[in-house]
Structures are given as C-alpha cells and as structure tokens.
Design a protein that fits this description.
Bound molecules: S-adenosylmethionine
CATH superfamily of the largest domain: Vaccinia Virus protein VP39
Radius of gyration: 25 Å
Number of domains: 3
Structural class: alpha/beta
Shape: globular
Strand content: 15-25%
CATH class of the largest domain: Alpha Beta
Length: about 475
C-alpha cells in the first residue's frame, strides 16, 4: 500500500530543482529537539557526490528539510545548493518538515516525534489524528491518546494532499478562507492563496474569477450547504446549554471570533512558554495582591485570572485567597501552568482552558478579576465584549485589576512616544522585549488608546478607581463593578 509519505515525497520529486545561494536561506523550524548532529554533517561534507536537494519554503526561504546538508555545504565551501521549493502555509511547512525528517535521512528520535506531535496538537488542534500520525510516524492510537492528555478536541475534517499540504474536507470553509485572503491580498499569486487557504489551485482560480466578474464566489451547491449549516447552527442556539467552564454559548455563533487565532503564535509555542518568565523579568505580583487586599478581598475571596499565562500571579494569589481560577486560551501555557500548580500542591487553583470570550464562570460570582498583558490580544470590538463578560463574572462591588499596553497619547504624538518607548527596549530577546518585539506588537496586536478603553470600561459598568501610566504606553487600572 502506498502511504501518504511516499505519495508526498513522490510529488515533491516532481518539483523543479533550482540552485540557490546558501546565503539566501534562513534556518528552519526543526522538529529535532537535540539540534544538529555534527558527525552527520561532517560525513555528508566528506561525500564526493552532489548532495540531494533540500526543501525550502518559498515564501519565507526557511529550510524545511536538509539542515544537515546546508551545514555540510557550508563546511565544504559551496556557495550554492540544490533546492526544491515548497508552496504552502507556515503550518503546512512545519508538518512537511516533521514528515520528511521523520522518514528520511537521519531519522527523528521517538522523543522528537512525540514532541512534534504535541506541538502540532497544541498549535494546530484542528489537524486530524490521521494527518498527525502520518507526518510524525506515530500510530493514530498514540496521537489520539496524546490529544486526550493535552486536552484538545478533535475536528478530524482534513486530509493530506499528495504535495504535502493538507486540505480541509470542508470545501466551504476552504473557499471562504480563499475569498477572505483574495480580498485582503488582491495581488497575491494564486499559488500563495491556494497554499494559505488550503484549497486546490483550481478553486483559488475559480474564486478569483467569480470575484472579478462580480459573481457570488460560492457556487450554488456550496451555498445550499452553507444554508443547511446555518439552519443547524440556529437550532443549536435555540436549545438550552449548561454553562460549564470553557463553554460559552455565544461561541457557536457564526460571527464569533476564534480566540486561539488571536492569541499570539508565540504563546502557543512550548519553547517560548518555557522562556516566558525570564523574558518578562520574573515580575513580582505582590503589589497587585496588595491592591486586591486593599480593595477588601480576604481569605474567603474568589479571584479569576484571565490570560493567566505561566501563572505567576495565580500561584501567588493562592496563598491569599480561597479560590483562584487561572484561565488561558493557549494549551501550551495551560499545560505549563497545570504542572506548576501540581508541583506546588495547590488545591485551590483551578486551571481552565478558555478565553475572555469563552470562559463561563461556575460557582458564586468572583470578588475580583485580574488580567495582565492579555486584553490587547483582542481587537476593540471584542475587547468591549470581553469587558462586558468580565462584568458578568464579578459580584456588584467586585474589582477588576487590569494591566496592559495601553496608549495614553494622541495619534499625532505617536512617532515621538513610540521612539521614546523603543529606546528603553531590551537588547537580549531572552531577557526582555526588544525593539523588534515592540514593533511586531504594534503591527499585529491590538493595544488601544486610553481614551478609547476608558469609555469601554464605563460601558461595561465599571468605575475607574485608579489609573496609572508608565511612559504613556503602559497602564494599570483598578476598577469597581457598579
Ligand atoms: C503576554 S501573556 C501574559 C501572561 C500573564 N498574564 C502574565 O502577565 O505573565 C498573554 C497571555 O494571554 C493569553 N491569551 C491570549 N489571548 C487570549 C484570550 N483571548 N483569552 C485568554 N487568554 C488569552 C496568552 O495565551 C498568554 O498566555
């Protein structure tokens, strides 16, 4: 029987081989936990025959497969290397890298395979067990049991394409993604759109043609399917649901945002999570605990930490308050947090995988909600809804303690404030936020202005008791729910 791997590598072999300068390549996202094997590099460099082509992600120039061959080429002084290009999304490129590394050359160790599977499950939970098993070389049973352990739900509606890309079996979802991408990037090539949306080139072409000629980009057959799905959704909306932690009935509305998609890709990456507290400079939560105690909280109180991350605040809060609920949307953060809670033997900290918009509080209303450096992940519309939901978690008189990158200046002052802010950036990304980190924050995340946030707080029923700003870019608020 021909497995997905042989079909895929077969398809890769049909891609044209090109010579590319070694200096144009960027290091790939390797699934090898232990890094490169220098012995293997030396052995490859000593070969007198040309090395087989490496595989490179065309849009990022990252090496998907062949890191050892690149090192060997450098060692023997080659300036060019044979490359086969892969066109597809970053996520598919990582999948392909795992698959190629798992099955050829210096094979992946069992630890590499399991780590790669865990990483795919956490960062791409929609991948089916079948696809993850095929790319890592683990059995489906093992992947299914890892999925259970990690606690991500399955949506096994995709298949592996022969060229190494995956395609959702849901044609409607793929087409909708292509429509959105084409509208956002009208000049992107069809190959790029097809890769990023996970649809066939023909589908991307059809969507573009329909958009160009003003026709509905969804053909009648799929429109009927969409109508049926909508009917099903509204039926589900009508039936009562019990709110359990992590389940918010609004989540099934068609217009609901996918919080995981906004969570910041670094927060989904176990390697980033492991270095997160060092990067943060191990902030001391005592000041915030004192603010809450000073606002009337005591040993009988309940506190919810939204976007809890690695749990620096939540763990410290456990010694002052009766019940602490630490909520985070990232499976990687939550796993780290759960381990720390278990290590510390804390029985009064509950870890819940959910987001601002999906967390459903159980038990008596909370006395305080704490959230630090997380609300900016959501665009303003969703921030306002999140604040409204926070209000719903709290008892009247309950406290919201909020820290975030919030901008206390006018748009015309942006250049000057940003320059001053960047001047204080860290040099070492492992020990702080660098200029690049700040720039990326501005480009891709949703920090808002103070003069927009404060009306949102008021609209959600909060009275601002105290607001402090540092360098006009970092705000700390204490608010009381009226
Ligand atoms: C910069 S970290 C801050 C973590 C922690 N509060 C701290 O101060 O150390 C942001 C956290 O928010 C989480 N996050 C992102 N979007 C979220 C959402 N919509 N709901 C809940 N948590 C979210 C991320 O997974 C990450 O753990």
């Amino acid at each position: 029987m021909q497995g997905p791997h042989s079909r895929m590598t077969g398809a890769l072999e049909s891609f044209a081989e090109t010579m590319v300068p070694v200096s144009a390549l960027r290091p790939g996202d390797s699934p090898r936990v232990g890094g490169e094997d220098l012995e293997h590099v030396r052995a490859l460099a000593a070969l007198e025959t040309p090395l087989p082509p490496i595989v490179v992600h065309r849009t990022t120039m990252r090496v998907i497969d062949g890191r050892h061959r690149v090192r060997a080429a450098v060692l023997r002084g080659d300036t060019e290397i044979a490359v086969r290009f892969f066109d597809g999304s970053d996520a598919d490129a990582f999948l392909l890298s795992v698959q190629l590394n798992a099955t050829q050359g210096l094979s992946l160790s069992p630890i590499d395979r399991a780590t790669a599977a865990a990483r795919i499950l956490e960062s791409q939970p929609h991948r089916s067990d079948q696809v993850i098993a095929a790319v890592t070389g683990l059995s489906r049973r093992v992947v299914a049991s890892m999925r259970k352990q990690i606690g991500v739900s399955a949506t096994p509606r995709e298949r592996l394409l022969e060229d190494g890309r995956t395609r959702p079996m849901n044609a409607l979802a793929g087409r909708r993604r292509a429509i959105k991408l084409l509208k956002e990037n009208p000049r992107a090539s069809l190959r790029t759109i097809a890769g990023a949306a996970g649809v066939a080139l023909g589908t991307a072409r059809d969507v573009r043609e329909r958009l160009r000629t003003g026709r509905d980009p969804i053909p009648p057959r799929l429109r009927e399917l969409a109508r049926r799905q909508e009917r099903l959704r509204s039926k589900e909306n009508d039936s009562p649901r019990t709110g359990s932690s992590g389940e918010n009935p609004t989540m099934i509305k068609s217009w609901m945002v996918d919080e995981l998609a906004y969570a910041g890709p670094e927060h989904l990456d176990p390697a980033f999570v492991a270095g997160f507290e060092a990067k943060q400079g191990y902030p001391d939560p005592t000041g915030d605990l004192d603010v809450l105690t000073g606002s009337g909280l005591n040993a009988e109180s309940t506190v919810v930490d939204l976007g809890a991350g690695t749990g620096r605040f939540a763990l410290a809060a456990a010694s002052r308050f009766r019940r602490v609920v630490a909520v985070d949307v990232s499976p990687a953060m939550l796993r780290y947090l759960e381990e720390r809670v278990a290590d510390a033997g804390l029985a009064n900290v509950e870890c819940v995988r959910a987001g601002f918009l999906s967390y459903a509080h159980e038990g008596p209303p909370a006395d305080a909600v704490y959230t630090r450096n997380a609300l900016h992940q959501l665009p303003d519309f969703w921030k306002a809804l999140a604040l409204e939901r926070i209000g719903g978690i709290l008892r009247p008189g309950g406290v919201l303690r909020l820290h975030d990158l919030i901008f206390d200046f006018q748009p015309g002052e942006a250049d000057q404030v940003v320059e001053t802010w960047f001047a204080g950036a860290a040099e070492d990304p492992a020990r702080g936020y660098t200029r690049d980190d700040f720039a990326e924050h501005l480009r891709t995340e949703f920090s808002t202005f103070r003069w927009l946030l404060e009306p949102m707080l008021a609209a959600a029923g909060f009275e601002i008791v105290q607001a402090e700003f540092t360098r006009s870019v970092y705000g700390a608020y204490t608010c009381v729910k009226r």
